Amino acid sequence: MAQRRFPIRRAASRDTRLIAKLANMAGGDTLAFILRGIDSTAEATPTYRQMAAEPTGIYSYQNCLVAASGSRIVGMANAFPARLIEREIAGAVLTEREELLRPRTELNDPTSFLLNNIAVLRSHRRLGVGAALLAAVVNEAKQQSFPSVTLHVWADNTEAIAFYLAAGFKELGHAEIPWHPDLPHTGGSLLMTRPVGFERDESVRRRLATVSQDSADERASTSA
Prior knowledge:
alpha+beta, 21% strand
């Protein structure tokens, strides 16, 4: 099993550099879109590194799980109670680009456990790492007594949607995002949900095995 080959543990502060690299693979285009509305030269990875190093905050290493191959981190998932999004943005003055993406945040189910980012190094894709991280997030939600796990995925990321459907997720809502020349997505964003008590039967396991796990490695991220 992938969880035995690639043990999953809670991230530590020493992991922030690789967490930032993986987070950038997952949602860097969206964060870069926001940052470049403020500074046209801004890069997402240094910002992720700064946020991951903080002991608190939704992107903190304390809200991350990592998958390892020996001493090397090969995947990560960033997940936390969805209600934390509202706490982070309460009273904040949003930029024009953040306002454009606000419909995604407004879809959030505050009673759920939110999978914000998930990514696997290209060298370790199609080995079950993404599925193992996803299972660990669902287990974390279960341990914290959340009824469901939710995630955002761009509507044009069809491979990711196929992966999540095979894993038991279903569409809960759709956010219309206005077109912008610097935003590399069209069709809006979906909020998908999966009950924590959902048990995969053999047919679901077979479907999950046939779906490209590259899709679990990118762009399941919020705009917060």
